[in-house]
Specification:
Blueprint: H1 3-33, H2 38-64, H3 70-78, H4 84-108, H5 124-147, H6 152-166, H7 175-181, H8 195-216
Helix pairs in contact: 1-2, 1-4, 2-6, 3-4, 3-8, 4-7, 5-6, 5-8
Length: 224
Amino acid sequence: MTQRLMRRLFAEVIGSLMLCATVIGSGILASRLSGGNDAVALLGNTAATGAILYVLIAALGPISGAHFNPAVTLVMGLRGEIKAGLALLYAASQVVGCMLGAWLAHAMFALPIVQVSSHARAGGSQVLSEAVATFALLFTILSLSRSRPQSVPAGVALVITAGYWWTASTSFANPAITIARAMSDTFAGIRPMDVPGFLAGQLAGAICAWIVCLFLLPKEEERL
């Protein structure tokens, strides 16, 4: 393994760790401070997540591409921008990073490190919401990468911020985050039994975004 590859994988681990720790940690603090008002708690959770996404993508994008998300890595693989073997290493790094982030958040708030979520997020509307949220995320990344690459960090942060409030699932849009949140019985958690539906929705949304962008964003030689 080359030093450059190690840097890329470490960037994916550390970025995923910080992202997941922020999602779960801000959910814990927001829940404690909101006095039982879930809307206020979600607002705090949303602001922290959007802010850290912008920073992490801007900081680590030049190193690894700042995927932090197996759905993003999958689509980049389908586009031929990352080889299959490296994509698998990226996905593994993202899942490990998110798991470590969940445990770090628990440790910071003096909670049991190992947990299993009991937060129900079941039903077709939730799965559809994850498909829509993931579609919106990938569509944003692919379209801005073509037209305004410098705006990708802001675009991703904004689409996830919006997704927290316009989707029924509060826009997980990330398989690695979903797996890690099943390991946290906190405001941001999801029951393990609900994870497969979320993963299916995320996969469907990512594939749909890839297909739509194949048509909307043709190769240079195909553009009018």
